[in-house]
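A reminder before we start the practical. When you read a complex entry, don't treat the lines as separate problems. The point of joint prediction is that each chain is placed relative to the others, so the output describes one connected object in space. Small molecules and nucleic acid strands, if listed, are placed in the same frame. In the example below there are two entries. Take a minute to note the order of the lines before looking further.
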Amino acid sequence: QVQLQESGPGLVKPSQTLSLTCTVSGGSISSGSYYWSWIRQPAGKGLEWIGRIYTSGSTNYNPSLKSRVTISVDTSKNQFSLKLSSVTAADTAVYYCARVRVEMVRGVTIPYFDYWGQGTLVTVSS
Amino acid sequence: SYELTQPLSVSVALGQTARITCGGNNIGSKNVHWYQQKPGQAPVLVIYRDSNRPSGIPERFSGSNSGNTATLTISRAQAGDEADYYCQVWDSSTAWVFGGGTKLTVL
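Here is the predicted structure of the whole assembly.
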């Protein structure tokens, strides 16, 4: 059973960089047809996809956050990480890491989130 | 960009059938996935590729997708089904898109 666990500071000052790490256990981050992704959820609001990475290092980001987001992977540690720069109060949210299962059906790529971490609250405040 | 529309809330009597809709332009041509999120918990995948249930998800959960509407159906609703439900698709221009979420109340 794959498990994901987010870690990192729960409080970040405005204009600084938010940094989180997701540790994957119960399987190798390099095995299978999976992407690894970050998603966030402000209190009382819906889910917002942030970005994803493949173990080759290729990334894809939400256009609304692209200029501030960097996702990286460390296969030796079975971890992937998120950096979000120039944060404001609007970036206060629960941040989730998730595994993206990628299926191919009749030539169509179908990705969805099959395992999620428990989430970690990050508050942006001075 | 592609958008998904869900009702803010749906109510269902205990033991009855709840239907939660997810609207999108020609969503029937896409693959829709559904997540259940209980208060203070991470989302859990309950339906993938329109109508498939992951292992461990009760048969009471089913899904359909046609035209401009995808539907999550919960039969014989239980108190434990109270949660927020989110639909999600992958769009080539927008990548992963979530609906705004629907709060299911079991009366």
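Discuss with your neighbour: The mean pLDDT of chain A is 95. What might explain this?
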